[in-house]
Amino acid sequence: PPILMWFRRDLRLADHAALAAACDSGRPVIPVFILDEVTETLGAAAKFRLGLSVADLSKALKAKDSRLILRRGSALKVLRKLIADTGATSVYWSRLYDPASKARDTDIKSALKADGIDAQSFAGHVLFEPWTVATKTGGFYKVFTPMWKSVRNTDVANPLPTPKTIPTPSEWPSSDDIDDWQMGAAMQRGRATLASYCTVGEGAAMDRLNSFIADRVQNYQKNRDIPAVKGTSGLSENLTYGEVSPRQCWQAGWAALHEGAADAEVFLKELVWREFAYHLAHHTPRIVSDNWKEDWDAFPWNTDERLAEVKAWKQGRTGIQFVDAAMREMYVTGVMHNRGRMIVASYLTKHLLCHWKIGLDWFADCLIDWDPCSNAMGWQWSAGSGPDATPYFRVFNPVTQLDKFDKDRAYARKWLAEPYKKPSDTASSYFDMIPASWQMRPDQDYPAPVVAADEGRKRALDAYAARGF
Ligand code: FAD
């Protein structure tokens, strides 16, 4: 009887333990993707990007004489229907660790087992299963550096090859057509422009990893902090949908390190930041929805999204160049440089004293590399309510940060039209993407800061002092 191979955030064929096990069994394999209760509620850009990835996987499977069966609805119902349609007796998938996926998968596993189905989950979305990494006293890690030290010399196994053949069933069940799903329907902004910034699918992800290792990893440490320079891998977009595995990235980085590229160690460390996000989400699931440090529950953050300052932040017109450039970069390209993410998050939560959830939700709607665990960790880290070794009262100064990391204003010019006489094409493209209701024009005066750097810092520190932190 066939095995249903349920794909989720593992949209690749290589280094895929669940798929490899299914193919090795010699039984027919029916690859399935379900637009279900978790994927249906993704943010606009993430859902659009997921659609591109599903279409690419579908093509890759076709090239192997297999198929990707697409179905829509509650995952358990769909799986049961497919089991009835095909006579499958097993369902395989790769484990996920964010609270929503975990809740769904736990229910499904027990329900299928009760039906007498062999339901099996496999590793692959992270390097280190969250329960296998523990402190000396047996607890989980709440601080990054000790976790990094404990895993940095791990002998990570080699990635698995792409299965040579994927055994097919004698009859295929029916499938939806991805075009009918309208995965980009919630996007208010130009799909073609956003798509032009996407690097989709397993093949493209592997090319991206290889070119990063060949050309950029040597200078990663210095260049990764300069937003105008293409100094990082860009792989977050692919890792989040599993178009590349963290193990493939780790092994490529490890090989570069041992061939003499010392900066590759910093890349490995960044991959472990991703692991840390998953580790925390597994052990403290509240990180995705509530203050990780509970003493922040009493802090009077603004939660009103209608506030003019919040709108200005979302629209990239706070009058603070680093913030506005980064917000516009995200709106046009679906990604934002890591330094930008830290600056805009700090500005929203500290200078503007707004709740980190406002930012978390806007990022979830705009990012093509949205990751439930990294996004939550990044926001709580920035707000001060999350796991961080640096004290919450260190407030980034977005003006001096620009002087430090964008001295010649190459990044600011790339994304801002108003302050500069001849706007760049990228800065202009922002105005083609935004809704007319925002009433922004490239020839307007650049706004004065909604909250100036020094003023906001003082306001934040006063608010912390008033709460007795
Ligand atoms: P590289 O520098 O090439 O790093 C390699 C990989 O390491 C990345 O692809 C990513 O998987 C991982 N990584 C690097 N930095 C971090 C980090 N700080 N936390 C977790 N993993 C990291 N990352 C996401 O993937 N999705 C998100 O939704 C997301 N939201 C964020 C929100 C905020 C407020 C902040 C401060 C950070 C967020 N990050 C998020 C982390 C980080 O900004 C991105 O992973 C990084 O910019 C991706 O670019 P890259 O792939 O070129 O990274």
TrEMBL record:
PROSITE patterns assigned to the protein according to its UniProt record, in alphabetical order: PHR_CRY_ALPHA_BETA
Alphabetized UniProt keyword annotations: Chromophore, FAD, Flavoprotein, Lyase
Binding site for FAD: 220, 232-236, 267, 369-371
Cofactor note: Binds 1 FAD per subunit.
Cofactor(s) this protein requires: FAD; (6R)-5,10-methylene-5,6,7,8-tetrahydrofolate
Pfam families: DNA_photolyase, FAD_binding_7
Top class in the EC scheme: lyase
GO MF entry, a single one: DNA binding
One Gene Ontology biological process: response to light stimulus
Keyword Flavoprotein in record: yes
Flavoprotein among keywords: yes
Domain Photolyase/cryptochrome alpha/beta: 1-127
EC number: 4.1.99.3
Site (Electron transfer via tryptophanyl radical): 301, 356, 379
Annotated family: Belongs to the DNA photolyase family.
Protein name: Deoxyribodipyrimidine photo-lyase
Organism: Yoonia rhodophyticola
